[in-house]
Amino acid sequence: MQFLKDLEISYVATMPMRAIGPLQWTKSTKIACKDENYIEACKRAEIINLLLTSEDVDHEKADSIFKFLTNPFEYEFEPTQNPNKIFVKEKYGSKFHLLKTPEGIIEAKQFSLIMAHKNFNTICLEEPDRCMHPQMVERMRDIFRSESRDKVVIVISHNPFLMNSITAEKTHVFFRKKNYEYSSKVSCGIHAICDINRRITDVDTLKKLVLQPKILCIEGVSDKIILEGLFDYIVGSTYLPLDERHRIISHQLVVLGSKTFDDPVEHFCKQTGLSAKWVYDRDKYIMLDETQTKIAKI
Predict the structure, then answer these.
(1) Which of 58, 83, 124, 220 is within CB 3.0–4.6 Å of 154 for a Cys-Cys bond?
(2) What Gene3D superfamilies does the entry give (predicted)?
(3) Under a CB-based contact definition with an 8 Å cutoff, are residues 168 and 178 in contact?
C-alpha cells in the first residue's frame, strides 16, 4: 500500500477540459456578470492556485521554463492571499484579471509549474499545447527533451509542431479501427514510430503520415498544384453529393519528390493501417521509344 501511495504522490496528469473561462459564447446570460466571472475564473484555475506559491515547486526553474516559452513577451502572475483574485501583469503594462489573460499564456504557466514540481516524476499531459502559438509549441517540445532525462513525460497531442527528427523516435501512433464495416466494435492499437520510420528521413512527410486518416501520394510539386486546383473545383461544385466531395478532398496530399520514397511510405502505411493511394506520372508505367514519340512498353 505504501508503494501505491508513493506512486500517487509522484504521478500527475492533466485533464483535456481545463479552460478557466465561464463563458463559451456571446449569447451567454453570464456575460454581464463581470465581477462574478472574474472570481469564477480564478476558482477554476486550480493548478495555478495550488502551485503558484507552493513550496513543492522549484520556482526558479518554473520561471525559467515560463520565460523560455513566452519570450519575447513577459508576463508575471501575482500571488495573493485571496484565491478568488489572481492578477497578471505584462511588462511595461498595467495588471489585469486572470480571465483576461491569453489562454496560451495560462497553459504555459500551468505547464511550467507542473514541470518544475519537485515530487512529480511521471507526468502525463493531455493536449498541453492548447491555444499556444506554434513557436511556443516548438519550445515546449525542446523542454520535453531536456526534462525527460530526469522525469517520465507522456504527451497526448494532435499537434505536428511537437514532432521533429528527435521526438519522432519517441512518438507512438494510437489508432482505432472498426472490426467490420457495420460493426460498432472498435479495435485499438499502438505503433512505435521508431520501428517503422527508419527510411523516412523527411520529418514534414512523417508528420502528414502520422496525423492524417487518408493520404494521396504524388511525385512532385507541380502534381500537387494541379490536384489542389481539382480539389478546390470539387469543393465548389454541386454535381457531386456532399459526402462524395468530402470523401475525395479528405485526402492529405503528400509530395514524395522521388520514387525512392515509395517503398518506405508504403511500408509505413501498411504498418499503421493508414489508407493511402498513389498518383504517378505516366513514365512510371509507360516507356517511349528512342524518338520519344511512340510507346515502346507499358
Answers:
(1) 124
(2) P-loop containing nucleotide triphosphate hydrolases
(3) no
pTM of full prediction above 0.90: no
For cell 511556443, the residue is 136
pLDDT at residue number 115 = 95
Q: Which residue pairs from 2-7 have beta carbons closer than 8 angstroms and sit at least 24 positions apart in sequence?
A: none
Structure-block grid coordinates of residue 68 = 523560455
Name the strand (E) or helix (H) holding 216.
strand 214-218
| Cα angle, residue 70 at apex, residues 45 and 73 outer, rounded to 5° | 105
| Residue 291, φ and ψ in degrees, nearest 5 | -80, -10
Sheet of 275-279: strand order equals 252-255, 214-218, 275-279
pLDDT tens, residue by residue, 205-241: 777 777 777 888 888 888 888 888 888 888 888 778 8
- Angle ∠(71,77,80) on CA atoms, nearest 5: 170
Q: What is the SS3 assignment for 263? A: helix
Specify whether the CB–CB gap between 256 and 219 falls below 8 A: yes
